Amino acid sequence: MPTDLVLRPADPRDAAAVAMVHLEARAAAPMPPPAHPEHEVRSWLSGRLVADEVWVAERGGHVAGYARLTETWLDDLYVAPPHAGAGVGSALLDLAKSRRPEGFCLWVFETNAPARAFYARHGLVELERTDGTANEERAPDIRMAWPGRDPVAFLRGLIDEVDEQLGDLLARRAALTRAVQPHKAQPDTRDTGRERAIAEAMAVRAPALGAQRLQRIVHAIVTESLDAAQDAP
User: Fold this and answer.
1) Which residues lie below 8 Å from residue 11, measured CB to CB, with a gap of 6+?
2) Distance between CA atoms of 220 and 159, rounded to whole angstroms?
3) What is the pLDDT of residue 188?
4) Hey, what domains does the chain have and what are their CATH numbers?
5) Among residues 77, 91, 144, 156, which one has the fewest Cβ atoms lying within 10 Å of its Cβ?
6) pLDDT in tens, 119-148
7) Mind listing the pLDDT tens digit for each residue in 30-74?
8) What is the pTM assigned to this prediction?
9) CB 116 within 8 A of CB 108
10) 147 with 125: CB under 8 angstroms?
11) H/E/C letters for each residue in 144-180?
């Protein structure tokens, strides 16, 4: 950490300085335009200083950067452009690791190659990519994670979350398969062309698995859903 850098918890008096860092850092980075006007960003950040855990990095008595943490996420890490490359971001990220030793996740825009490279150098890994439909900027983004002092436990925790969602989706899929059978010309039959199309559509969302693997998964889901439908009272 730079010898002239001081890290301390933020307080409401830092609101203006934190907002300035946020706005200037975003403007200088290869990121999509903000979804909200400046006055809304300032008001929102002022509220987050009270609700979240926020730390500022001071150099020469001025706020050079800040980090904002929730229980399991690093939601913000911004460094004012004049202080970029001076170790401020690294110091704030190391602080976040010390405050969340079990690990945390963050989102970074796909276009923000410098930020992605920075996080990768500091041991964060990419977990998933999205097309951006879930964020306000509607820009593709990447979920990254620092897996903490016990990476297996951290990543298994994330797997457990996905498995819970899969369980809910499979239950819905089975229920819909059962509901559609009375309306089909030939109940309990399957449409292999439709299954192939489903797998190909899924492959767009899960390219790492590919259409062939997904077609085998779809086949198993349909098989077991039809079997469950036959067993239903």
Assistant:
1) 49
2) 21
3) 76
4) 5-148 (3.40.630.30), 155-231 (1.20.59)
5) 156
6) 999 999 999 999 999 999 999 999 999 999
7) 999 999 999 999 999 999 999 999 999 999 899 999 999 999 999
8) 0.88
9) yes
10) yes
11) EEECCCCHHHHHHHHHHHHHHHHHHHHHHHHHHHHHH
Render pLDDT for 200-223 as a digit per residue (tens, 0 to 9). Answer: 999 998 999 999 999 999 999 999
Distance of alpha carbon 159 from the chain centroid: 14
Cα angle, residue 196 at apex, residues 191 and 199 outer, rounded to 5°: 130
Give the integer Cα–Cα distance in Å for 20 and 23: 5
Tokens of 78: 């911004």
CB 4, CB 60: distance < 8 Å? yes
By C-alpha distance, which of 151, 67, 142, 159 is closest to 103? Answer: 151
Q: What is the overall mean pLDDT for the chain?
A: 95
The values of phi and psi at residue 148, to 5°, are 75, -165
Is the separation of the CB atoms in 83 and 115 below 8 Å? no
Residue 154 predicted with pLDDT over 70: yes
Q: Indicate whether 110 pLDDT > 90.
A: yes
